[in-house]
Amino acid sequence: MDKPDPADIGIIEDSAKRFAQTEVRPHLEAWETAGEFPKEIYARLGELGWLGMGFDEAYGGTPAPMALRNALSITLARYTGSGGFLAGAFSHTIGLPVIARFGSDALKQRIMPDVLAGKKISALAVTEPGGGSDVANIRTTAIRDADHYVIDGEKIFITSGMRADWITLAVRTDPASRGPEGISMVAVPGDAPGLTRHKLDKMGWLCSDTAMLHFDKVRVPLANLIGEEGKGFKLIMNNFNAERINIAAMALGSALCCYDEALDWARQRRTFGKTLTEHQVVRHKLVDMHMRIASTRAWLDSVVDRADRGETGADWVAEVCLLKNHATQSMQFCADQAVQILGGMGYMRGTASERLYREVKVLTIGGGTEEIMKELAARQLEI
Question: What is the model's pTM?
Answer without folding.
Answer: 0.94
